[in-house]
Design a protein that fits this description.
The chain has helices spanning 2-23, 56-71, 153-181, and strands at residues 42-43, 48-49, 84-105, 108-128, 133-148. It is an alpha/beta fold and 183 residues long.
Amino acid sequence: MWWYKQRLVLNSCFLLFICLMAGCGYHFRAGGEPVGITLENLAIPLFTSTSTDIGFEANFTRIVREEFISHAKVPLVPEETARTVLVGRIIEIRTDPIGYGTVDYPSGAFTVTKTRRLKIRLDVQLIDRVQGKVIWHDASIEERSSFQVETDPLATRFSQEQALEKLARRAAIKMYQRTMERF
């Protein structure tokens, strides 16, 4: 008999919760739908860069496109036919040493870089081509990631590329949220 009363109390609480949620004005939004704007389609052209590193712009743009493809219900189309365009420019990409170590050689001990920080700064804007207006613009999207410097230059390059991919993913999430979730 006690279990019947306990079940009745739980069911009453659940029913009260449902009534409160229905009356409070809160509602769930369909995933992948933008808030506050209408996006019929979207183009994400190749990000431009002033960096001397060749080829990373394509990987960076690919990661941003993947973020929108995997979450948004907005179709990606070529720039020529797009109503909305996400334009990005890589303003700065640089590496700075952040960790040092000592290496002993027969000729003496030398201080070498063991860890470096990769920093990227972006200028990104979402443009409504039909109305000719900028929906949002952020000239200071910045991300940082560190990587290990190895004795093998290829291993160091691989670590740097992994750090760059991590940065690109974080920046892509920011762009997605700014576009679709409006914050």
